[in-house]
Amino acid sequence: MLTATAVLATALPAAAAQVDAAVAIQQQGRLEARGAAVTVPTRVMCQNGATGSLWVQVTQNVRGELAIGEKYTPSVPCTGEFHKVDVTVVSRTKAFRQGVAFTSASLNVYLPPDNSSTVEEEREMMLVR
Question: Which keywords belong to this entry (predicted)?
Fold first, then answer.
């Protein structure tokens, strides 16, 4: 006869370990095509052997209206070292302008067979030409 603890232990999966990962948004983004897009420089790090994807969003108040864009990058390098990843975000509303914008980045990392991690950063970024 199995004890309740033994039954519970076999019914629950082992806790997944955290995967090493980090994302950092740089201080300045570069306006492209007269503000139709902005290149957002990021630095990403994910554990060697993992796979990573990156999502970046930029929001800016332009004369009382919001310029908003986002970009999904399905694959980033995962070597255990930091890598520079430039993400070009196209506005889906109105043109970005020089000045401050709010930027967020989310790095999702998966390490087989069942370990995953998500790290995020949010910051104000200066958009320049």
Answer: Signal
